[in-house]
């Protein structure tokens, strides 16, 4: 597993694509949070990072599929997946190696955003300090969200040898999981009880809950369960492709 993890990290940063993806993520955050007037944190009148945690999931919808799209698709395209299947590795070791490599890259992209916290802390008045507990909860929520999106992206990459197709499937699936259930709960036909359960089935409900600074074990279990489900589907997809191949 460590060999796969190491290979994927090296492969990602050996091309300019990896650096561009991270730079664009940070650039988009910087522009929205400190330049564009509608979302500028400096115009809010009080110190907070709410804009970051509202914006980051939308940027994740593009960033994480870009990170994961080649993780397994390139293995199928180049024919190395068959070679991997003959090595003394279990399917779970392959899946976990790919997953941790991609998730580490997501974490690396997030680390520089701590600068926003430092900057806002310095700009805040003494009686208007940042709520550290709420921000920590929001970062935990963002990491859990990144974990689900990463697992979903790897699953999408296991379906095809075309990285572009994997990218598009991952974006669509992540969007449906994040926003689809919330949107569906607002349909009039589901009002009166079913709307609440539909909303709970989606990622956004649990992410918003953690982002308020309340780290509920039920939300953590939800994220971990969904991540585990997507990784299990990835394993099934890999086994099926090798058997059919």
Automatic annotation (TrEMBL):
- GO cellular component term of the entry, any: plasma membrane
**Any idea which UniProt keywords this protein has?**
Cell membrane, Membrane, Transmembrane, Transmembrane helix
Any single GO molecular-function term of the entry would be: ABC-type transporter activity
Kindly list the residue ranges recorded as spanning the membrane. Answer: 12-35, 55-73, 94-119, 139-156, 163-181, 220-238
Q: The organism sits in which domain of life? A: Bacteria
Cellular localization per UniProt? Cell membrane
Query: What topology does it adopt in the membrane?
Result: Multi-pass membrane protein
Q: Per its record, how is this protein called by name? A: Gliding motility-associated ABC transporter permease subunit GldF
Question: What would be the name of the gene that encodes this protein?
Answer: gldF
